[in-house]
Design goal:
Length: 249
Protein backbone atom coordinates (compact mmCIF):
# COMPACT_ATOMS: atom_id res chain seq x y z
CA UNK A 1 0.00 0.00 0.00
CA UNK A 2 1.25 3.47 -0.91
CA UNK A 3 1.04 5.87 2.03
CA UNK A 4 1.55 9.55 2.76
CA UNK A 5 2.14 10.95 6.25
CA UNK A 6 0.68 14.33 7.24
CA UNK A 7 1.80 16.02 10.48
CA UNK A 8 2.94 19.56 11.19
CA UNK A 9 5.88 18.34 13.32
CA UNK A 10 8.80 16.87 11.35
CA UNK A 11 10.11 14.67 14.23
CA UNK A 12 6.71 12.95 14.37
CA UNK A 13 6.80 12.35 10.62
CA UNK A 14 10.31 10.90 10.60
CA UNK A 15 9.60 8.73 13.65
CA UNK A 16 6.46 7.31 12.06
CA UNK A 17 8.29 6.71 8.79
CA UNK A 18 11.01 4.77 10.62
CA UNK A 19 8.42 2.67 12.46
CA UNK A 20 6.56 1.87 9.23
CA UNK A 21 9.77 0.97 7.40
CA UNK A 22 10.83 -1.27 10.29
CA UNK A 23 7.59 -3.00 11.28
CA UNK A 24 5.18 -2.65 8.35
CA UNK A 25 6.88 -3.87 5.16
CA UNK A 26 3.57 -3.83 3.27
CA UNK A 27 3.60 -0.01 3.46
CA UNK A 28 5.53 2.17 0.99
CA UNK A 29 5.86 5.73 2.31
CA UNK A 30 5.66 8.01 -0.73
CA UNK A 31 5.66 11.45 0.87
CA UNK A 32 5.86 13.41 4.12
CA UNK A 33 3.70 16.53 4.43
CA UNK A 34 3.90 19.14 7.17
CA UNK A 35 0.56 20.82 6.47
CA UNK A 36 -2.85 20.08 5.01
CA UNK A 37 -1.87 22.10 1.93
CA UNK A 38 1.23 19.95 1.36
CA UNK A 39 -0.94 16.90 2.02
CA UNK A 40 -3.31 17.79 -0.82
CA UNK A 41 -0.36 18.16 -3.20
CA UNK A 42 1.00 14.76 -2.11
CA UNK A 43 -2.47 13.23 -2.45
CA UNK A 44 -2.80 14.43 -6.05
CA UNK A 45 0.77 13.43 -6.89
CA UNK A 46 0.85 9.88 -5.48
CA UNK A 47 -2.83 8.77 -5.22
CA UNK A 48 -2.08 6.86 -1.99
CA UNK A 49 -3.98 3.88 -0.64
CA UNK A 50 -3.48 5.06 2.95
CA UNK A 51 -3.04 8.38 4.76
CA UNK A 52 -1.66 8.80 8.27
CA UNK A 53 -3.25 12.08 9.31
CA UNK A 54 -2.54 14.25 12.35
CA UNK A 55 -5.76 15.72 13.78
CA UNK A 56 -4.39 18.84 15.44
CA UNK A 57 -2.50 21.03 12.97
CA UNK A 58 -2.31 24.82 12.69
CA UNK A 59 -4.30 26.64 9.99
CA UNK A 60 -6.17 23.51 8.85
CA UNK A 61 -6.67 20.43 11.04
CA UNK A 62 -7.11 16.86 9.87
CA UNK A 63 -10.90 17.04 9.74
CA UNK A 64 -10.82 20.26 7.70
CA UNK A 65 -8.35 18.56 5.34
CA UNK A 66 -10.83 15.73 4.71
CA UNK A 67 -13.76 18.14 4.33
CA UNK A 68 -11.84 19.93 1.56
CA UNK A 69 -11.76 16.78 -0.58
CA UNK A 70 -14.41 15.68 -3.06
CA UNK A 71 -13.83 11.94 -2.68
CA UNK A 72 -12.11 9.50 -0.31
CA UNK A 73 -10.46 6.80 -2.41
CA UNK A 74 -8.06 5.85 0.38
CA UNK A 75 -7.95 4.59 3.96
CA UNK A 76 -7.23 6.91 6.89
CA UNK A 77 -5.45 6.30 10.18
CA UNK A 78 -5.62 9.36 12.41
CA UNK A 79 -2.65 10.15 14.63
CA UNK A 80 -3.28 12.36 17.66
CA UNK A 81 -1.91 13.37 21.04
CA UNK A 82 -5.49 12.80 22.32
CA UNK A 83 -8.34 15.24 22.00
CA UNK A 84 -11.48 13.81 23.61
CA UNK A 85 -13.88 15.38 21.09
CA UNK A 86 -11.79 14.18 18.16
CA UNK A 87 -11.44 10.65 19.52
CA UNK A 88 -15.18 10.46 20.10
CA UNK A 89 -15.73 11.42 16.46
CA UNK A 90 -13.43 8.78 15.00
CA UNK A 91 -14.74 6.09 17.35
CA UNK A 92 -18.34 6.79 16.39
CA UNK A 93 -17.28 6.54 12.74
CA UNK A 94 -15.20 3.37 13.22
CA UNK A 95 -12.21 5.04 11.58
CA UNK A 96 -8.86 3.89 12.92
CA UNK A 97 -6.57 6.05 15.03
CA UNK A 98 -3.28 5.96 16.93
CA UNK A 99 -2.37 7.88 20.06
CA UNK A 100 0.99 9.60 20.38
CA UNK A 101 3.52 8.36 21.33
CA UNK A 102 2.81 5.56 18.89
CA UNK A 103 2.68 2.03 20.25
CA UNK A 104 4.32 -0.42 17.83
CA UNK A 105 1.77 -3.20 18.40
CA UNK A 106 -1.14 -0.79 17.84
CA UNK A 107 0.56 0.54 14.69
CA UNK A 108 0.91 -2.94 13.24
CA UNK A 109 -2.72 -3.79 14.08
CA UNK A 110 -3.99 -0.55 12.54
CA UNK A 111 -1.99 -1.11 9.35
CA UNK A 112 -3.27 -4.69 9.08
CA UNK A 113 -6.86 -3.46 9.46
CA UNK A 114 -6.26 -0.77 6.84
CA UNK A 115 -4.84 -3.39 4.48
CA UNK A 116 -7.98 -5.52 4.87
CA UNK A 117 -10.24 -2.48 4.52
CA UNK A 118 -8.42 -1.47 1.36
CA UNK A 119 -9.17 -4.88 -0.10
CA UNK A 120 -12.84 -4.55 0.85
CA UNK A 121 -13.01 -0.86 -0.12
CA UNK A 122 -15.48 -0.22 2.70
CA UNK A 123 -13.84 2.49 4.79
CA UNK A 124 -14.51 5.22 2.25
CA UNK A 125 -18.10 5.32 3.45
CA UNK A 126 -16.86 5.53 7.02
CA UNK A 127 -14.83 8.67 6.24
CA UNK A 128 -17.90 10.25 4.67
CA UNK A 129 -19.81 9.33 7.81
CA UNK A 130 -17.13 10.91 9.97
CA UNK A 131 -17.75 14.19 8.17
CA UNK A 132 -21.49 13.78 8.75
CA UNK A 133 -20.85 13.21 12.46
CA UNK A 134 -20.00 16.87 12.94
CA UNK A 135 -23.17 17.94 11.14
CA UNK A 136 -25.23 15.70 13.42
CA UNK A 137 -23.65 17.28 16.49
CA UNK A 138 -24.54 20.78 15.32
CA UNK A 139 -28.01 19.97 14.00
CA UNK A 140 -29.11 17.82 16.97
CA UNK A 141 -30.23 14.99 14.70
CA UNK A 142 -30.45 11.47 16.08
CA UNK A 143 -26.95 10.10 16.52
CA UNK A 144 -25.80 7.09 14.53
CA UNK A 145 -22.77 4.95 15.23
CA UNK A 146 -20.67 2.98 12.73
CA UNK A 147 -20.27 -0.67 13.74
CA UNK A 148 -17.70 -2.56 11.67
CA UNK A 149 -17.96 -6.34 11.36
CA UNK A 150 -16.19 -8.76 9.05
CA UNK A 151 -19.06 -8.59 6.56
CA UNK A 152 -20.14 -4.92 6.69
CA UNK A 153 -20.12 -1.55 8.39
CA UNK A 154 -23.56 -0.95 9.86
CA UNK A 155 -24.66 2.62 10.58
CA UNK A 156 -27.09 2.13 13.46
CA UNK A 157 -29.11 4.69 15.38
CA UNK A 158 -28.02 4.78 19.01
CA UNK A 159 -31.68 4.39 20.01
CA UNK A 160 -31.78 1.04 18.14
CA UNK A 161 -29.09 -0.49 20.37
CA UNK A 162 -30.63 -2.53 23.19
CA UNK A 163 -27.42 -3.69 24.82
CA UNK A 164 -23.77 -4.61 24.33
CA UNK A 165 -22.01 -7.71 25.63
CA UNK A 166 -18.25 -8.23 25.72
CA UNK A 167 -16.18 -11.30 24.94
CA UNK A 168 -12.48 -10.60 25.45
CA UNK A 169 -11.64 -7.82 22.96
CA UNK A 170 -14.88 -8.21 21.01
CA UNK A 171 -18.28 -6.62 21.62
CA UNK A 172 -21.63 -7.97 20.45
CA UNK A 173 -24.35 -5.39 19.77
CA UNK A 174 -27.98 -6.47 20.13
CA UNK A 175 -30.31 -4.27 18.09
CA UNK A 176 -34.04 -3.65 18.24
CA UNK A 177 -34.60 -5.40 14.87
CA UNK A 178 -33.32 -8.64 16.49
CA UNK A 179 -29.99 -8.48 14.64
CA UNK A 180 -26.62 -9.02 16.32
CA UNK A 181 -23.32 -7.46 15.28
CA UNK A 182 -19.90 -8.70 16.46
CA UNK A 183 -17.39 -5.84 16.48
CA UNK A 184 -13.66 -6.23 17.14
CA UNK A 185 -13.46 -3.48 19.76
CA UNK A 186 -13.51 -3.86 23.57
CA UNK A 187 -16.66 -2.85 25.42
CA UNK A 188 -14.95 -0.11 27.44
CA UNK A 189 -14.59 2.01 24.29
CA UNK A 190 -18.35 1.91 23.76
CA UNK A 191 -18.99 2.51 27.45
CA UNK A 192 -17.17 5.81 27.08
CA UNK A 193 -18.95 6.66 23.82
CA UNK A 194 -22.49 5.78 24.84
CA UNK A 195 -22.56 6.97 28.44
CA UNK A 196 -24.06 10.29 27.33
CA UNK A 197 -26.86 8.49 25.48
CA UNK A 198 -28.48 6.72 28.44
CA UNK A 199 -26.36 3.55 28.53
CA UNK A 200 -25.43 1.92 31.84
CA UNK A 201 -22.35 -0.28 32.41
CA UNK A 202 -24.06 -2.53 34.96
CA UNK A 203 -21.45 -5.29 34.75
CA UNK A 204 -17.92 -5.82 33.49
CA UNK A 205 -19.35 -7.57 30.43
CA UNK A 206 -22.61 -5.69 29.89
CA UNK A 207 -23.66 -2.25 28.70
CA UNK A 208 -27.42 -1.59 28.61
CA UNK A 209 -29.61 1.10 27.05
CA UNK A 210 -31.81 2.15 29.97
CA UNK A 211 -34.67 2.89 27.55
CA UNK A 212 -35.10 -0.89 27.22
CA UNK A 213 -35.02 -1.70 30.96
CA UNK A 214 -38.33 -3.06 32.25
CA UNK A 215 -37.54 -3.82 35.90
CA UNK A 216 -34.95 -4.72 38.52
CA UNK A 217 -35.14 -8.35 39.61
CA UNK A 218 -33.92 -9.11 43.15
CA UNK A 219 -35.19 -12.60 44.00
CA UNK A 220 -32.10 -14.56 42.92
CA UNK A 221 -29.49 -11.82 42.94
CA UNK A 222 -29.62 -8.50 41.13
CA UNK A 223 -30.60 -8.47 37.46
CA UNK A 224 -31.99 -5.96 34.99
CA UNK A 225 -34.98 -7.36 33.09
CA UNK A 226 -35.18 -5.93 29.59
CA UNK A 227 -38.27 -5.50 27.43
CA UNK A 228 -37.31 -8.52 25.32
CA UNK A 229 -37.10 -10.76 28.41
CA UNK A 230 -33.30 -10.79 28.65
CA UNK A 231 -31.86 -10.73 32.17
CA UNK A 232 -28.62 -8.83 32.62
CA UNK A 233 -26.60 -9.24 35.85
CA UNK A 234 -25.68 -6.28 38.00
CA UNK A 235 -22.24 -6.64 39.55
CA UNK A 236 -21.74 -5.83 43.21
CA UNK A 237 -19.27 -3.08 42.42
CA UNK A 238 -21.66 -1.29 40.06
CA UNK A 239 -24.86 -1.79 42.05
CA UNK A 240 -24.88 1.64 43.70
CA UNK A 241 -24.09 3.40 40.42
CA UNK A 242 -26.98 1.59 38.70
CA UNK A 243 -29.30 2.54 41.58
CA UNK A 244 -28.30 6.18 41.30
CA UNK A 245 -28.71 6.20 37.53
CA UNK A 246 -32.14 4.55 37.63
CA UNK A 247 -33.17 6.50 40.75
CA UNK A 248 -33.86 3.32 42.70
CA UNK A 249 -34.13 3.91 46.48
Amino acid sequence: MKAILIDDELPNLTNLQILLNTYCPQIEVCALAQSAEQGIIALKTYSPDLIFLDIQMPEQDGFAFLRSLNSYDFEVIFVTAYDQYAIQAVRFSAVDYLLKPINIKELIEAVNRAFKQNQLKSQHKQIEYLMDWFKVQSQKEEQRIALSTVEETRFAKVSEIIRCESSNNYTTFFLSDNSKLLVSKPIYEYDELLSNYGFIRCHQSHLVNKAYIKSWLKEYGDFLLLNDGTQIPISRGKKQMVKDTLRVF
